[in-house]
Amino acid sequence: MPARVGRPPLWLTLAILGLVLVLGLATGVFWDDLQRTALDPKIPFQTYTPPKAPDYALKSAWYLLPTDPAHAPAGAVDVFFLSPTIYDGGEQWNAPIDDRRGDKLFRRVMAPNYAGPFVRVGRLYAPRYRQASLYSELTLREDAQEARRFAYGDVADAFRFYLQHENQGRPFVLVGVEQGGLLADRLLAEQVAPDPAVRSRLVAAYLIRTIVPAESPPIPPCMMRAQAHCLAAWMTLRADEFPRAQTLLDRALVWGPHGELVGLNGRQALCFNPLLGATTDAPAAARLNLGAANATGLEWDARPAFLARQVSAQCQDGILRVSAPKSGAFSPQGSWADRKKAPGYNLFYADIEADALARVAALTGQAAGAQP
User: Fold this and answer.
1) Count of CB atoms situated within 10 Å of the CB of 221
2) Above 90 in pLDDT, residue 21?
3) 226 three-class SS
4) DSSP secondary structure string, 72-134?
5) Which letter does DSSP use for residue 211 in this model?
6) What is the CA 294 to chain-centroid distance, rounded?
7) Which of 11, 98, 220, 303 reaches 20 to 30 Å from 272, CA-CA?
8) Using an 8 Å Cβ cutoff, are 282 and 273 in contact?
């Protein structure tokens, strides 16, 4: 008859449970560090060989192009759109432009939610660029700053190509989200503001989830909706995240006078309120919110269902403080890396669309809408 196996002593059971608990707590405490380490390319940028450069004469170098770039209807307006971060990292400091996972994230999440509000505004141009990895956004290391400066080279090339071969003198809207907003800010300073002919065609620049110093911006901030040639820039934090606002400002990097990245160093950040269409500290009640949207997964060009009156918003100390949305459709979701990127929804979708259309009308004297 086989011997019966007795239960382990109570002390041993408790010890094992205690060890499991300690390991679980340690993993939770150091989870961010573990994830960041996994995304670190672990090679100095100075000895790094970047992916192949894009050729903007090829359609494959663009995420989005008008259906017929050579033939724009009368009164058409262009939108030049710079994507937020879609590449996690791990092997590269800067993303290959043919990264399949990034392409899928752009088309499934970023384009519907952030380029989508401009579909009715004008003809969309969205270049692929060797953007800095997510890891470079999570550290202040010099290597990471070099990766962001490197990404600007592609963006500058894409914009020059667009002006020389595609724009044909049309008014245009410049849009950048998160990393794309940082790069668009430098474009404004170096390629738009100094050139009177280009600047005169700029309807407005929307730098979404982007910190821009309020001191001497490259173009005037948008102060009312019936204004063109202006800058709308804002960084959003939900009310339950607002205690980390100062940390966000302390870690923010902006462009210095010679193309270097520097800290804000106590300077105020610009803060545009999309509910009011103005750079102002005035509060905006939720009743002014024309429509938030979760467009993730929708077919390109599909108009999402809007949920109005979802959030209130007010600029405080250079950060747009937003109330918790009323719908669960706007809850954070996805992997650890996904939660570090621009959210898969847009709380100001309809507000941004209406704002851009109003500024096109202010510049051209007619409503925009190159695409039905």
Assistant:
1) 18
2) no
3) coil
4) PPTT--EEEEE-------SS-SB--TT-HHHHHHIIIIIIIIIIGGGTTTSEEEEE---PBPH
5) -
6) 15
7) 303
8) yes
Answer whether 278's CB lies under 8 Å from 224's CB. Answer: yes
Which of 176, 232, 246 is closest to 203 using CA atoms?
232
Count of Cβ atoms closer than 10 Å to residue 240 Cβ: 8
Residue 67: its pLDDT value, please?
85
Amino acid at 289: N
Give the pLDDT confidence of 122-178 residue by residue, as tens digits. Answer: 999 999 999 999 999 888 899 999 999 999 999 999 999 999 999 999 999 999 999
Tokens of 120: 């009715």
| DSSP, res 192 | I
In the chain the first and final C-alpha atoms are separated, in Å, by: 83
Encode pLDDT of 198-255 as tens digits. Answer: 999 999 999 999 999 999 899 999 999 989 999 999 999 998 888 889 999 999 999 9
What is the pLDDT of the chain when averaged over all its residues? 90
- Supply 66's token pair: 């008008």
Q: 370 near 76, Cβ under 8 Å? A: yes
* 142: Cβ contacts below 8 Å, ≥ 6 apart: 45
The residue whose two tokens read 């432009």 is: 97
The pTM is what?
0.90
Alpha carbon dihedral 45, 130, 206, 318, in 10-degree steps, equals -20
DSSP H helices, the chain, are 10-29, 31-39, 100-105, 134-137, 142-165, 179-187, 196-201, 245-251, 336-340, 349-364
Looking at residue 90, its pLDDT comes to: 83
Q: Are 115 and 123 in contact (CB under 8 A)?
A: no
For 172, the 3-state DSSP assignment is strand
236 Cβ contact partners less than 8 Å away, ≥ 6 residues apart:
209, 319, 320, 322, 347
